[in-house]
Structure formats: C-alpha cells, structure tokens
Amino acid sequence: MLGFVARRVGKGVLVLLAIVVLNFFLIRLAPGDPALVMAGEAGAGDEVFIAQLREKFALDQPLPSQLAAYLRSIAGLDLGYSVRQQMPVATLIGERLPATLLLTGTAFAVSLSLGVLLGSLAARRAGTLADTAITGLALLFYATPLFWVSLMAIILFSVRLEWLPSFGFETVGAGYTGLSRALDIARHLVLPAMTLGLFFMAVYVRMTRSSMLEVSRLDFVKTARAKGLTEGVIQRRHILRNALLPVVTLAGLQAGTLVGGAVLTETVFAWPGIGRLMYEALLQRDYNLLLGVFVVSSAMVLVFNLVTDVVYRAVDPRIEVA
Question: What are the Cα distances from residue 32, in Å, to 23, 29, 41, 63, 282?
Fold first, then answer.
C-alpha cells in the first residue's frame, strides 16, 4: 500500500506541475494589462509609472523568463506577492483556506452520508410512496440551479423565519470565544453547506439506489437469502458494500467539483474562503493571487483523488493496487 501511495503522489506532483504551467499561460492570455489597471487605481496613468510597474513585477520580461521564475518560486513554496492586497499570497490563502475546508468538508460529508442513507432507503422501499418521494426530491435538487436554491434559502430561513444568519462566517463584534464561537460559526455554516451539498446529495441518492437495485439481483445475494441470513445483514454486508464502489468513485471525482462550486456559494453567502478570494482576484487582475489560488485548489483536488483511491481499495479488498 505504501508503494501505491508513493506512486500516486509522484504522479500527482507531475499533474500539478502541468496544471501550474497551463494556468500560467491561460492567465497571461487573458485580456487586460495588470500594469494599466494598477496605475489607473493609483491615479497615475503616465508612461513612466506604468513602465516602473511592469519592471517591478517582471511584466516586461518574456513569458518563458516569467514562467521559469514562477516555477522556481513555487518549488520554494513561495506563491508570490499580491500587489493589490499588499500581502504575501501564501498568507492571504492561509487566512481563507480553513473557511473553505470547513465549508466544502461539511457539504461533502452531509451530501455523501444523506445521499447514501436516502438512496439505500429508496432501494429497500422500491416502488413505494417513500421511494417516489425520495427520488422526486433528488430529481428536484439535481435540476435546480445552485444560486436559486441559495437565494430561496436566505429568503425563507433568514428573512422570513429568522432562524439562521444569511451571510458571513461569524457574528461580527459579538466577541464569542470557545464553545460559544463554535456554535456561532456552526449557525452561519448551515445554509451555505446545505445549499452546496444538496446537488451532490441528489446525485448520490440516485447512484446508490440504482446500484443497490442492480446488486440485489445478483446470484450471490440470492444465495445469501437461501442461507437464511436476515434482510438487514444482506442489505448491509452484501448489497450496500458492493453498491458503494461506484458511489465512492463518483464522490472522489465530485470532491474536486465541490471546491469549484464553493466559489458561487461563498460569493452569495459572503463566506470568507478562497473561492471568494479567487473571484476578487479575477476582477482585480491580481495575477499572483489568482495563480496561487489555482495551485492550492489543484493540490486539494489531487489530495481528494488520492484519498479516494485509498478508500476504494479499503471498501473492496479484491481490487489490486497498481
């Protein structure tokens, strides 16, 4: 297993290097001159000042030279300096990353656990009213745009019912500490995590239901029933365990999508994560910050995929690592 993990980490590093190079050229090909933007916001648009900005941030160098310098800094774990924020990029991302990990981790755990639970229930009650209700809700959440669900959740739970806060990470100026602060953050987390996880929960419900129904018709399940095993044991040990393999594969792929989906959710709910930071950097032409967020996001996706491979092997020991 250790050799397998080492090989996967090596491949992940090569993939990350390719992503860094690709992102560098894509950012440089985007329209707009960052030197002109910075000069405009500083209120000084003369040619001398613009040339000084280009020289200071190496924007006057050829692209290969800029790329080589950027790769050397990445190898040294230096993500550069944000001109707009006047702070190192690593510091900015480090301040925002915990909020994004909390949001995406909670959304992922809720969507996967509820999706498998409801999908299992629908498969065991196939053809009944409960099955129709669960599959109907899953289809509704799957087809509804994320931003619409977010806005409706704010209107219902924050504006009408006043149960939950509509934006932010915690109550500003409240001065909570310890458990009180944790509970305050949890209240702010409910709406963004639930709305971000609803779409993925619907996918897991449909995948789990169809996979369990398919496995339940196989011969080894009929043999288990013929041996006199209880229905609960058959469902847990024989059907659900085998049906989870495609669900685990899909969950690993969608873990990376959650990071991308967090951009919209963090923007709507004013959640201070790296998704919102990336959106702000894009609007401000902050190249270094934008590239830094891309690198960290890509690394997160690769880590999620590595964890998925390990979990996949643990769920079904028959699968050989290679």
Answer: 16, 9, 14, 16, 11
SS3 (DSSP) at 86: coil
Is residue 316 within 8 A of residue 238, CB to CB? The reply is no
Strand partners, 244: none
- 243 and 266 inside one domain: yes
Same domain, 43 and 175: no
Q: Distance of CA 3 to CAs 16, 196, 202, Å? A: 20, 35, 36
Q: Does the pLDDT at position 321 exceed 60?
A: no
Q: How far apart are CA 258 and CA 254, in angstroms?
A: 6
Strands 87-88 and 81-82: antiparallel
- Domain residue limits at 192: 90-315
pLDDT tens per residue across span 205-243: 988 888 888 888 888 888 888 888 888 888 888 888 788
Looking at the DSSP assignment, which residues form a beta bridge with residue 81?
88
Instruction: State which of 47, 76, 105 marks the end of a domain.
Output: 76
Alpha helices (runs of H) in the chain, residue ranges in sequence order:
2-29, 34-42, 47-56, 63-75, 89-124, 129-143, 146-153, 178-215, 219-226, 231-233, 241-268, 274-283, 287-315
Q: Which of 138, 102, 98 is nearest to 117 (CA)?
A: 138
